[in-house]
C-alpha cells in the first residue's frame, strides 16, 4: 500500500518517505512496542502531519487503511497525523492535556494511553530524522531533548534511553 501510494518517490530527510517509515516502525519494534503501534509507525504519514504535509491517502479514504492495518493502528495514525503541534505539544505531559485536531479544530482530552502512544511515535519519528541528519540534530536536537525530557514519564525506558543517546 505504501509503494502504491508513492511513498518511495517522496523526498524525506534521510532519503525517501518509505525508508523513513520503515525505520520508524523498526525503531518502535526494537523498543518493544505492541504490534498496533509498530504498524502505526509504518503508516504514520498516510494523512500527512503538521510537520510534513505530503499525504499518501485522503481522509475520506480512512477505511482503506483500517482494512490494511486494523482499527487500532489506523486510529493511532489518525491521532498522530491530526495533531496541531503548536496547540498540543506544550501540555501533552499533563494529565489534563488538551489535544487539538488540526483537521477539525476539535479539542479533546486524550487518555494516558493515547498520550503515551503519541509520545513514543513522536520520539521514534524525530529520532530517526535526527540520526540521519547531523545538521537537523544540531539545529533541533536541544529543543527535542527538552521536549522529550518533559514527556519522560510518557516514554518507555528504551525510547527514553534512545532519546538520551541520540540527543544528549
Secondary structure elements and pairings:
Layout: E1 11-12, E2 15-16, H1 17-30, H2 35-43, H3 62-69, H4 71-82, H5 85-88, E3 99-100, E4 107-108, H6 112-132, H7 134-150, H8 157-167
Antiparallel strand pairs: 1-2, 3-4
Describe the structure.
The protein has about 170 residues and is mainly α. Helix content is about 55%, strand content about 5%. It is built from eight helices and four strands, in the order ββαααααββααα. It has a two-stranded antiparallel sheet. Helix 1 packs across helix 6, helix 6 packs antiparallel against helix 7 and helix 6 packs parallel to helix 8. The N and C termini lie far apart (about 35 Å).
Key attributes of the depicted protein:
single chain, 168 residues, mainly alpha, two-stranded antiparallel sheet, 8 helices, globular
| Contiguous helical run count | 8
Written as H for each helix and E for each strand, in order along the chain, the element string is EEHHHHHEEHHH
Estimated radius of gyration: 15 Å
Unreliable segments of 5+ consecutive residues: none
Topology, number of strands: 4
Which secondary-structure class do the elements indicate?
A: mainly alpha
Brief description of this entry?
By secondary structure, this protein is mostly helical.
